[in-house]
Amino acid sequence: MNRALVLQAAAHLLAYPDERFWARLPLIREAALPYFTDFIGRAEELGAGELAAHYVETFDLRRRCCLYLTYYTDGDTRRRGESLARLKGRYRAAGWELCDELPDYLPVMLEFGALDASGEALLREHRPALDLLERSLTELGSPYASVIGRICAILPPLTAAERRTAETLAMSGPPAESVGVYG
Fold first, then answer.
1. Distance, CA of 37 to CA of 14 (rounded, Å)
2. Which of 38, 102, 106, 169 has its CA 20 to 30 A from that of 90?
3. Cα 95 to Cα 64, 89, 91, 115, 116, distances in angstroms
4. Could you give the CA distance from residue 92 to residue 156 in angstroms, rounded to a whole number?
5. Between vectors from CA 164 to CA 158 and to CA 167, what angle results, nearest 5°?
């Protein structure tokens, strides 16, 4: 198995299903078979409109199905801003400059993992969030669960500490911050 190819293909499959997504799908089918056969078949079965609606409903409207991985550990807090700045610094150190996406957007992290030696370590650091995302997508019956499952399968298994972190995140959700609110 070519890990870089799997990560690159997963990055494309987890992007919003616009015209570029559909144009790349035949290439991904050829290059990444059999890893994403189930997802690709389901995407084609749903079609462009229904898959786009599912994407928005799943990733934009459900807190537990967020593709911005620092959200799981930092929520919408000031700490998340610090995490995002650290990620940007890591990308810069590797010669990467981001244009349009936040640095914790999973497709960006997957591309980094595919193209830079330090990228897989970055994904491993967010392993509890990936586990929670996979679980949430599986419970939802989303075809995207198989894509996240493939990513998790090529990373080392969760450690006991990471499993506890994932369980805590599953029970409590992302942290919240009340700035300037007095009780």
1. 14
2. 169
3. 32, 10, 6, 11, 10
4. 26
5. 100
As a whole number of angstroms, the distance between CA 57 and CA 53 comes to: 6
Residue with tokens 């980094």: 112
At residue 178, φ and ψ (nearest 5 deg) are -110, 95
Q: Which of 22-26, 127-131, 135-139, 168-172 has the lowest mean pLDDT?
A: 168-172
**For residue 181, is pLDDT > 60?**
no
The model scores a pTM over 0.70: yes
Cis geometry, peptide bond prior to residue 34 (ω within 30 degrees of 0): yes
Name every residue whose Cβ is closer than 8 Å to that of residue 43 and which is 6 or more positions away in sequence: 13, 17, 25, 51, 143
Q: What tokens were used for 21?
A: 């997504």
Please state, in angstroms and rounded to a whole number, the distance separating the CA atoms of residues 158 and 164.
9
Q: Which two tokens stand for residue 133?
A: 């995302």
Pair of tokens at residue 116: 């830079």
DSSP code, position 35? T
Structure tokens at 61: 């409207």
Neighbours of 106 (CB within 10 A): 26
Closest CA to 80 of 94, 66, 93: 66
